[in-house]
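Hi team,

As requested, here is the filled-out complex form for the calcium ion run. I kept the field names the same as last time so the parser does not choke. Let me know if anything looks off before we queue the next batch.

— J.
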Amino acid sequence: MDATWTFIPKLILAAALVMSSRAWHLNVTSSEIDVGRTAQVSLNCFNPYQQQDITDLLMMRIEKKQLTGWSSVAELRHGDVDVRLTANDVTATGNIVSGANSFMRLTWPLATNDTIGLYRCDVTFLNSHGSVGWQKGLPTSISRKSDVTFQILSEMVEETKRQCTQQKQDIQTYVAAAVEENKRHCLKEKQDVLQNMTAMLKALEILETVTAALERNQREVLLHSQRLLANTSASLEQRLSDVEDKLWIRQTLYLAISHSRSSNSSLWVSLQPQSCASVKGFGPRPVVLLSSGQRVVCDTVTDQGGWIVIQRRVSADVDFFRGWEDYKNGFGDLHGNFWLGLEKIHQLTSQASCLRFKIYCSGLHMNLQLVLIFYGLFSLSLRFHHQVRHELRFDLRFQGKNYYASYDKFSLSGETDNYRIQISGFSGNVDDNMVGHNGQPFSTNDRDNDSWEKNCASVYHGAWWYNNCHSVNLNGLWGSTGGAKGLRWKSVTTGSVSFSEMKIRPFAK
Ligand SMILES: [Ca+2]
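And here is what came back:
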């Protein structure tokens, strides 16, 4: 067996024996230091027990506990003169002598932060058996002196902790109380809202009741108003009817009395609707709206009035040289120069008039009371159709003198017959110059219905019932003095009349 293999177990055994011993001490002069203030801080490694079984010291070492383990800061080996240092700001002395008298001292002239730490003494030696031993002392610490400030700070930290804890408790208590208070408040609010809602609902119910009552009242008022209006309307209509009846009675009485004076006929007729015959007291030429809807000018003066004027020329303000449509429908100004219109004249003279008959016993001269009694008891409204005979009259003025021509029978056919004229029963202070026009259709500058090879209307600047042209040309050129283009009545004029009116009325003779 190799000598090395026999030596190692012996060395381990010896080391085990000496490791447990505490022969070597490491004393410190100041175990608590002020950094930068405490001076002469020393660590002294020595063997107070003077252990005999050490023949030679091989190495002494002072170690410091680091995070990675123990680390040498000073080391003295057998034969060294000076201590080997790794620590800073320290001085060291030591002496390895025979046996256990060896020592090593490490001194900080002034304590530094590096001074603070945990140290131990570590010794390697040979014993009397020639074995290598290893001993280490108990660790010795150098620590910072207790700092008053630190204590104060610690106390302050503790106090702060206590205060924080107290405040935390206070806050928790406050928050819990606030939550409770908030809950109570919310509950109260909720109750108040519910109460308000209940009150509002009650108010709404009352409002609905009031509204319904108002609506009911409004309906009743409206109904009452409607009834009142209906009653008033009926009353007014009745009164209007009464007035109409009274007016009708007055007219009837007037005509009856007139008629009874001139004739003993037992039957007479009064016209409805009203024509110009019933228009009196509105001036000589009132413009009226007949019940037929036609607006006409009445002549209430000439030959006892009752005329509907169908043509008037008083100035050059209106051009009469026009075509068929204008003469058919009418043109001009009812208050000045105008042509009423062939269609309207046709309608007026040929419409199926609605007549109301009032039958009275006659042959006797009845007084007013008797007529009223008969009216009340026997008034009969009979309606039937009747072709009303009309008369036609011309009124002219030439060189300051008035002329007229009247035909007690006049009719005008419809458009399909080109408004052919039929007249008879002449009277007047002029010659019957319309005789040559009797039975002729109407012609205009755009509708030639005459008997001439040319167009009389175009040549003579007019529109008339032309035959082989004319003896009368009252729609001719205003003011014309030659060429028969003027407003002519052959037996009177040498140029144009300065006034012309044509008028019709129901024949009542
Ligand atoms: Ca012709």
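Two things worth flagging: The chain has three domains: 3-144, 153-262, 272-506. Residues 405 and 430 are 6 Å apart (CA to CA).

Thanks,
J.
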